[in-house]
Structure formats: structure tokens, C-alpha cells
Amino acid sequence: MPYPVDRRRFLRTVGAAAAALGAGGALASCGGSDAPGTTTLTWWDYFTLDNFQPGMTRLIRDIEAGVPDVRIERRTFPFAELERQITLGAISGDLPDIAIVDNVSMNTLGGSDLLADLTDRVEEWGQAGQYYKGPWDGCQVGGRTLGIPNQSNCLALYYNTRMLQDADVEPPTTWDELASAAERLTKGDRYGLALSAIRTEEGVFQFLPFLWQAGGDLDTFATHGATALSFLDGLVAKGSLSEQCVGWTQQDVNTRFLNQRAAMQINGPWQIPTLKEADFDWAVVALPRDKEAATCLGGENWVLMASSDHLDKAWEVLEYTQRPSVLTPYLVSFGNLPARKDLADRGAWASDPALRLFLSQLPLARPRQYGSHYADASQAVAEAEQAVLTGSAAATAAARTAAGKIDKALGER
Fold it and tell me: Where does the sequence pass through the membrane (predicted)?
């Protein structure tokens, strides 16, 4: 759907970013000095952690070896700063040719005219049908293709195998079964279920599947949001879910599961490498459903900047990264899932049962594609969940208050 640009809001955001940011991140390159005829492409991403560097270095070296006459100059930023730095570049003129951005950033960047329209290039390329619907839809803004999925993830339900066996509980498949299982698995200082309800996008990422499973969406939050909030509030009221989840990140949730202080947890595939070191057996199943089955799409997209003087060469690089021989080792090194259906039988996810479960859920994964004011709607959702789970508001009242803010935000797109 179209997301017209709110110029005043965009410029206010740029101004705030200009005040908040300094010089940005560090520069890095895998090549030496440019040879005659070589095109240097600037590349920005937020993969700053050490464990990402071997895979990223290999990918860039592969690109420089496989794409004729190209050199990559990479710059990294902390996750929270990358989108703001791109926004700031609208005034400073300091923008990359290529960037890897969080898929939620498409809500803001997609309506700012900063991103190159790839529609015609993609049509000529002919590979759009190879991607799962959710990741591909996350690159569509206003009927245009503004990115290519980089990698994808989603949420599922992990459980401690022995704990469920000892309690004679089957892995839940519905909300009713989840509530019953969580109550029976709660014992002493161990909760039946752990999830993140923190007042950030991380918490909203975990809440939205409940809203969708209830049969609703952000535009029906007053009713379906109340249903989802009431269900979670019931888990807290019965002691099956700790009220402290309002301060837990997804990493905190996984830590409680690893410490066996939660029998089940909602989390993503990025936790699997750590969980493989656990001293107990675990498994993972799809999120339990209510009226519908749903999970939330996470991951990143490749984008090109409309201001680039090297769009043809940048597209050549982007297209090269999507070759199975290039993409598979890159995704494996990051522990990520492919957004392409034709890679389902390659890489670690082809033989790992847990990864295959997450991969099977990608067709159900929904992108958070709600327009340039999504951040305001997301904040309203987070505030409602916090209010209900801390006991400061009833689910119906909190949902109604949030719905007014959400409707205003969605109405401005």
C-alpha cells in the first residue's frame, strides 16, 4: 500500500538525528588501493559483534573476487544508529551505495525517497518467486520493490523435554493448551512460560503474533488487542508467566530457559547455538494458535540508495549475493535462515530439526509493514502490554487507549 512521505516529520527526524549523532562508525575494506577502472561501493550495516566478522569478511572478499572491477568499503554502526545515520545522510549527502537494514526500517525509509526503486531490475532478474511471501512482502512499499531480503527469522516455542515428560504434558498447539501446560509446568521458582514483554520493539515483536492469532491486526486493536492482552494477563494472574517479563529482553528469556527457571520460552532461531550447549534436552514447535496460526517476521533487507552514482554496479553486487553458492555459506556463518525457498534443502537448516521447524514457519511469518508512523503504533502497543501485565490497567481499557493512538498513527500513513 502507498506510504506518502510526511516531509515535516521526516525533516524533524533528520534534525533529531543530526543532533544525536557524531561521526558514525568505523570504515573497513577487504581490498587495497583501487586499480584503474575499479568502482568503489560504500556499504553500511550494523553487524558490529565479533562473531559476525569472519562471515562478513568472507562475503565481501567473495564479492570483490566474483563481481568484476568492484571494491567494497564497509562502514558499521550500532543497531540503534544505522537508520538514523541514513536519515541524517539525506541532509549531509553522506550516504552509502548499499546498506543492510532491519526489515522494520522499511516503514520509515520506504517513504522517504532515499531508497532506489528496484522494481524494473527485479522484474528483469526474474527471481522474485524464489522468496517466501513474508520476507518478500517486507520489501514492497507503495507497489514498488525497494529491497531484497537478506535473511529471515521468526518466533517459535521452545520447551524443556524432560520437564514436559515429567508433568505428562504434550507440547501445546492452541492457546488453551498453552495456558494449561504453562500452569501445570509452574513449580517453585520455575515458571511454565517465559517471553519478552519489554517496552521496546523487541517486546512488540513477541506480542504481535498473539494479536494476529486472535484474528486481528493493528487496525482492530480495541477488540483483538484486548483478547491478546487478556490472555497474557491470565497467564500472569495464574503465576504461569512472571510479571518481570515486562523488563526481559529475548536474551533474558533465553537465559531463564537455560537456567531451567522456565519450562517453555518464546524465542527465535538465533538462540540455537547457545542452546546446543545446554545440559538438558529441548525441542521447538510452532507457536500455539487461537483463531489463526501466525508468527512475526524478523531479519534484514538489502537496499540501494537512490542517490548512488553506481546503481548498476551496486545492483550487480546485490544480485551476486543472492546466488546460492554465495548466500548459503554467508547465512550459515551468521546462523540465519534463508529468505529464499530454493535454499530450504541446503546448509545447516536442511538437517537440523530445530532450524527446519523455524524454516517451516516462514510462510506464516508476517512483516511489520505498517507505514512511516509504525514506531508510534508500536509504542502504543508496548505501553498497553506494560500497563496490563503490571496491573495498572485492565485489558479492555488498555486496548481501547492504545487503539486510539494506533489509529492516529496508521491514519497518517
Answer: none
